[in-house]
Design a protein that fits this description.
By secondary structure, this protein is of the alpha/beta class. It contains eleven helices and ten strands. The strands form two sheets. It has a six-stranded mixed sheet, with helices on both faces. A four-stranded mixed sheet has the order 4-6-8-9. It is globular, with a radius of gyration of 19 Å.
């Protein structure tokens, strides 16, 4: 297995486990992670996910270049299927996942690794983490969604500087740009990610799902379309037990 999973209370900690390859994303790893996420969708024992890399050197160095080169050598159609369809499928799965996914960035996050951070709902970085978009040095643009998500997250000019130069930025710069939520000492990384998960899990799962879906779906729409998405997800929560409990709790304190 290229991923390892253990559960801390109701948070699943998923580790990309290829430390000798700096946790590079070969096709097997992408497929295993995608399949695990499919199963976790309906696993009620899992309320949130922390995603990290094995060891302390890398979250993920990105796509496994050996796999990528083999597909490109065969031709454009296989390359699109093997690389783009698979990679965009994973990042889309992460971005649209109905439970919060927190990237715990325990080292370098390059290429596809950075694109996973972009797709994750939240991210905490160790203070030695670095982020880069080096695909241009291989002759192509980011293929896992990074040319689209990064500008939406940090702004067009800052994203283009990373994409066009391929230069790395450190964790503190990534935090300044809005790519990660927090920077912590490496020894505190997992604890910080789990603590963030607990702060989310205190709320009703139906509310968490609705908030995730409304933001993810609405962010790329016009404001009027986005407001309609917000209204639709609000409507899904009205009859839920989470709303009833939340209102009862508030009203009992107000009396």
């Amino acid at each position: 297995m290229s991923i390892q999973v253990h559960q801390a209370e109701s948070t699943a900690v998923v580790t990309i486990d290829r430390p000798d390859k700096l946790n590079a994303l070969d096709y097997t790893t992408i497929d295993e992670l995608s399949a695990w996420l499919d199963g976790a969708t309906t696993d009620e024992s899992i309320r949130s996910i922390v995603l990290m890399g094995s060891g302390d050197r890398a979250f993920s160095a990105g796509a496994d270049i050996v796999c990528l080169a083999q597909s490109i050598d065969v031709g454009t159609v296989p390359a699109l299927q093997d690389i783009v369809t698979r990679g965009q499928g994973l990042t889309r799965r992460i971005e649209q996942f109905p439970k919060p996914i927190i990237a715990a960035v325990n080292g370098l996050a390059y290429g596809g690794g950075c694109e996973i951070v972009e797709a994750a709902h939240l991210a905490v970085a160790a203070d030695h983490a670095t982020f880069a978009k080096p695909e241009i040095s291989l002759g192509f643009p980011p293929p896992f969604g990074g040319s689209q998500r990064l500008p939406r997250h940090i702004g067009r000019k800052r994203a283009l500087e990373m994409i066009l130069t391929g230069d790395a930025v450190d964790a503190h710069r990534a935090h300044e740009m809005g790519l990660v939520n927090r920077v912590v000492p490496a020894a505190e990384l997992l604890a910080a990610a789990l603590e963030l998960a607990v702060r989310i899990e205190r709320h009703a799962p139906t509310a968490v799902h609705a908030c995730l879906a409304a933001v993810t779906r609405g962010i790329n729409l016009s404001i009027d379309e986005g407001l309609a998405v917000e209204a639709a997800w609000f409507a899904t929560t009205v009859p839920t037990a989470g709303v009833r409990r939340g209102l009862d709790r508030f009203l009992s304190r107000a009396q």
